[in-house]
């Protein structure tokens, strides 16, 4: 998974944002998340959850990615990230996605969740990103050490690197209880057909890939195939590597969106994704607690119906 960090809430003029939040109307205290500036919720008391098809376990539809944003050092950066994770948890988010590719991210996740007091209330996902059976085993064991887990919720094969070799190890580890779920990932449209080929033939629980209001290739075959085969899906690059916020910078969220429980551009982009019935969880990356809280709001309130989805896509396509 490759995404880039964004300062996604800065595009809309402040008066428009305040008005949008007023229209949503309910204080964060409804979920015990008071103190997060600009965080409002609808009367819906919990985040929308979707089932992991292979087990029917429920997973909240918005999580957090750690590419670049968690590859940090220093007390001040760690303090902000700890508050970011707490904001995700308080709003009902659960999945944290990382990888050995992401520098210090796995280690930082492990350190901060251990300090959080809610360490065992997250769903931990990471990846194997190397070649060879023994190298893969060593890397996965190191990931578990860094993330301070005795078992991993989800282990994924990053960008399909040596996937046939690692899949055999993951099946063994799942049987032994070292991991709970097996997944594969990629981040480009050009690899969607290969993902489809693999999930059509092999026993996998999750598939992670890129999808956004600007990049809808996954709607053609990959999302329907995942749904047909009973796989959970994790969506990366939800903001199209930050391009979406460049398009809407300085523009207010349209009134017809605020009338449908969409009050910021972040929610606009994420709700478009979550409203697809084959999407299990989307993982926007951020190191800002306020942005994390805003991201989580995409799991609350009404989701766009097909007609509204197309209206949203048409608006962004015209920019």
UniProtKB/TrEMBL annotation:
Q: Does the keyword Transmembrane helix apply?
A: yes
Tell me the superkingdom of the source.
Bacteria
Q: Where is the NADP-dependent oxidoreductase domain?
A: 62-299
Q: Where is the chain membrane-spanning?
A: 21-41
Q: What SUPFAM superfamilies does the annotation carry?
A: NAD(P)-linked oxidoreductase
Q: What is this protein called?
A: Aldo/keto reductase
Q: Where does this protein have coiled-coil stretches?
A: none
Name the InterPro entries for this protein. Answer: AKR2_Oxidoreductase, NAD(P)_OxRdtase_dom_sf, NADP_OxRdtase_dom
Provenance organism: Larkinella rosea
Q: Could you tell me the keywords of this UniProt record?
A: Membrane, Transmembrane, Transmembrane helix
Note whether Transmembrane occurs among the keywords.
yes
């Amino acid at each position: 998974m490759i995404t880039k960090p964004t300062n996604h809430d800065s595009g809309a003029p402040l008066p428009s944002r305040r008005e949008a939040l007023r229209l949503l109307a309910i204080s964060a205290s409804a979920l015990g998340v008071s103190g997060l500036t600009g965080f409002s919720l609808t009367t819906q008391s919990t985040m929308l959850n979707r089932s992991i098809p292979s087990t029917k376990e429920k997973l909240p539809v918005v999580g957090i990615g750690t590419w670049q944003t968690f590859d940090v050092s220093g007390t001040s950066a760690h303090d902000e990230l700890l508050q970011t994770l707490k904001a995700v948890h308080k709003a009902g988010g659960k999945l944290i996605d990382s990888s050995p590719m992401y520098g210090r991210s796995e280690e930082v996740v492990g350190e901060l969740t251990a300090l959080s007091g809610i360490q065992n209330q997250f769903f931990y996902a990471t990846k194997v990103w190397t070649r060879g059976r023994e190298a893969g085993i060593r890397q996965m064991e190191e990931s578990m050490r860094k993330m301070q887990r005795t078992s991993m919720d989800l282990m994924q094969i990053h960008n399909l690197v040596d996937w046939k070799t690692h899949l055999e190890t993951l099946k063994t580890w799942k049987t032994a209880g070292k991991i709970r779920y097996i997944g594969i990932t990629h981040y480009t449209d050009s690899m969607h057909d290969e993902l489809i080929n693999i999930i059509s033939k092999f026993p996998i629980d999750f598939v992670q890939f890129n999808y956004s209001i600007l990049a809808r290739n996954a709607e053609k075959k990959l999302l329907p195939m995942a749904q047909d085969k009973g796989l959970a899906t994790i969506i990366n690059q939800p903001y199209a590597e930050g391009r979406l916020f460049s398009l809407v910078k300085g523009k207010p969220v349209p009134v017809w969106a605020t009338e449908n429980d969409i009050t910021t551009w972040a929610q606009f982009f994420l709700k478009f994704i979550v409203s697809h019935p084959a999407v299990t969880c989307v993982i926007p990356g951020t190191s800002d607690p306020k942005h994390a809280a805003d991201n989580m709001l995409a799991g609350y309130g009404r989701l766009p119906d097909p007609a509204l989805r197309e209206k949203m896509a048409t608006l962004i396509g015209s920019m």
